[in-house]
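Figure 6 in text form: structure in, sequence out.
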């Protein structure tokens, strides 16, 4: 159902996942239509046909429901990086992991990919939500950099390259998302193209610099 979803066999667990996804989808729809700050939890619950107390069983705040899929995607990015071949240069590994996660999202047959695209638009057009995301993103970026340091056999306390590599990739993706959000009729294909262009621009020069350092 999402980037982080696992096969679930129990009826109760499947129902919980469906409810959770319905709340996320409804919330994002309302945020895009009415504005993030203007939409209340009560309105989300009503539109999702759940009680407010049910909403709070799944999410503590509006920020959490708005960023739920992004958080799951970030975690999937970390897991995907761990599967990359050891022979891949570090920036190429990061770029390939980022691309693989988005491809998986877009190939999902439950609409998760298009929901993810809508959330990207929402982030770029809701400064308070973007600020909330930046605060949460620091943790995953630190984990990515420390894992990359371990992968490359360097000491993250003295070698800044893992942090610089992660920062460059994250910044490139954010730049692509921002440019996409300014397009009059930007599509999901436009978003994926801009992400690929941004990541491709980083690979050779940064990996070459890493190898020569």
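Output sequence:
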């Amino acid at each position: 159902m999402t980037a982080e979803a696992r096969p679930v066999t129990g009826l109760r667990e499947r129902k919980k996942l469906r409810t959770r996804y319905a709340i996320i989808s409804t919330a994002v729809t309302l945020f895009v239509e009415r504005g993030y700050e203007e939409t209340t939890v009560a309105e989300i619950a009503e539109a999702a046909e759940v009680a407010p107390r049910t909403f709070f069983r799944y999410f503590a705040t509006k920020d959490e429901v708005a960023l739920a899929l992004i958080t799951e995607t970030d975690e999937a990015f970390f897991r995907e990086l761990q599967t990359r071949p050891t022979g891949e240069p570090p920036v190429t590994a990061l770029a390939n992991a980022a691309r693989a996660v988005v491809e998986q999202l877009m190939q999902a047959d439950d609409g998760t990919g298009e929901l993810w695209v809508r959330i990207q638009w929402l982030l770029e057009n809701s400064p308070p939500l973007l600020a909330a995301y930046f605060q949460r993103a620091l943790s995953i970026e630190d984990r990515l950099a420390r894992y990359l340091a371990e992968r490359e056999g360097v000491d993250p306390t003295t070698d800044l390259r893992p942090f610089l590599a992660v920062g460059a990739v994250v910044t490139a993706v954010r730049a692509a998302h921002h440019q996409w959000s300014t397009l009059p009729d930007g599509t999901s294909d436009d978003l994926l193209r801009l992400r690929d262009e941004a990541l491709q621009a980083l690979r050779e020069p940064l990996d070459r610099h890493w190898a020569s350092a």
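Caption detail: The radius of gyration is 18 Å.
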